[in-house]
Amino acid sequence: MRLRKVHNMLIASALVCSMIVTPVFAEPSSAREEEAELKEQKEAAQSELESLQATLDSLMAKANQLELDLIAKGEEIIQAEEDLKVAEEKKDEQYEAMKLRIKYMYESGSGTATMEKVMTSGDISSMLSQAEYSQQVHEYDREQLQEYANTVQEIEDLQATLETERANLEELEAENEAQQEELNAVIADKSDEISNLDEMIQEAAQRAAAEEEAARLAEQQRAQEAAREEGQGGSNGGGNAGNSGSNSGSAPVYNPSTGNAIVDRAYSKLGSPYVWGATGPNRFDCSGFVGYCLTGTTSRIGTAATFYGWARVSDPQPGDVVATPTHCGIYIGNGMMIHAPKPGDVVKIAPVRSNMVYVRY
């Protein structure tokens, strides 16, 4: 499939960028030269990181579109199920009506008995009229039954096609998520590389400063010795003290609360089946479930990617939304969430995933 090829090309190009060999430079003549070369190395690594991030952004955009497609496909399947149910009911009604008409015809003498009477009386026109009427009734019933049978078959075929299309989209979504995870790992490695380079640059800068200070003091000492030798004397003093700084911070104190409406709604839907495109009240996909918990209605308010783009919070509270670009749930405290995981599963409690962010409605 074309989309899959594009995904594979994107991830391949990203991985190639990440595998660029870090240049090994010659022994520098001074710490300042080492610092300059390390800075060049960092700039190259940052450029690679930006390229990787751009690739990840592209994958996330595709993931959002896949989710939208899956939601739309799920809604089509739900509608097809409802249409199929109505069509089957109409078919059954028509079949029962046909049986009653046939029964009435024979019980009222409109069938074989009446036709025998007509033939005995010699009333040919009555006989022909009766036969024509009976034939028309039967043909009408057959046509109606066939029409409803055709409708039922069309809806069943449509439902099967939609299910196949949904399965293909789910496969693409799974591939996209795997590629995002792989790319996130590469980005993390590249970020670590840049962090290490920052430390090396800082160390090199400190060494360079120490070398320059030592050179300054040595030059000062030589000048003083030269002055003493010339009998000029002098005094010198000086020193240079390093400085250091530290900063500290503390994470906000987390006091979980209970009994809020969002969490209550989430708990009330435990065990509800996952259905793509469903927003409740008894069937959900992941974003449909989150939307229901937040608003108490079955109107969709966004996708996982929508929630992922909301302003993030550093003090997560029960009732907040946890999200990745492709999945979401309701935070209930203590590192746990309630979410609708995937097709074939049900709404359940699970640990918040490490790559999820916390946002507030």
Q: Care to describe what's here?
A:
The protein has 361 residues and is mainly alpha-helical. 65% of the residues lie in helices and 6% in strands. The protein has seven helices and five strands, in the order αααααααβββββ. The protein has helices at 2-18, 31-107, 112-121, 124-229, 261-268, 286-295, 304-308, and strands spanning 321-323, 328-333, 336-339, 348-351, 357-359. It has a five-stranded antiparallel β-sheet. Strand 1 and strand 2 form a beta hairpin. Helix 1 (2-18) packs antiparallel against helix 2 (31-107), helix 1 packs parallel to helix 4 and helix 3 runs antiparallel to helix 4 (124-229). The chain is elongated and about 150 Å long. The two termini are 38 Å apart. The model is unreliable at 1-7, 14-28 and 233-257 (pLDDT under 50).
N-C termini distance: 38 Å
Instruction: Give the helix level as a range of percent.
Output: 55-70%
Strand order of the largest sheet: 4-3-2-1-5
Total DSSP helices: 7
Gyration radius, in Å: 39 Å
Low-confidence stretches: 1-7, 14-28, 233-257
Q: What is the helix/strand order?
A: HHHHHHHEEEEE
Strand content: 5-15%
* SS elements, strand count: 5
Shape: elongated
Average the pLDDT over all residues and give the rounded result: 75
